Amino acid sequence: xxxxxxxxxxxxxxxxxxxxxxxxxxxxxxxxxxxxxxxxxxxxxxxxxxxxxxxxxxxxxxxxxxxxxxxxxxxxxxxxxxxxxxxxxxxxxxxxxxxxxxxxxxxxxxxxxxxxxxxxxxxxxxxxxxxxxxxxxxxxxxxxxxxxxxxxxxxxxxxxx
Length: 161
Fold this sequence. Notes:
With 161 residues, the protein is mainly beta. The protein is built from one helix and twelve strands, in the order ββαββββββββββ. Keywords: Iron, Isomerase, Metal-binding.
């Protein structure tokens, strides 16, 4: 894969969103992927599979009902793909909440500052691959109050996860 330089940001390499989704699909085909996490765990769990300054790849296990809470990925663009099970993404756009469902093999891309929450509302545990460019520096957390998203804080990479 070839990194591209983001216009207006000298020296910052990014992958295109299509490249990020293709990378997620590639990692999702690993036959040993399910051995990376305890799929019987009752709490959401994750493992960073690889990282450079320009690209970061995570594997996340989603027990029934597990959710991320509202957040963005600061300046990172991203993609994620449901490997097993099904996930529901709610995202904030046009000052309202929209729903998207991602069944096994389905993925999506998003830009920087994309605000969303991802939840396993299915009937079995789920597994997903997430890819970010540049590597995550943190996440802004939000609360949905009275149909308005309000920032509640910023988690910095390496401090909370």
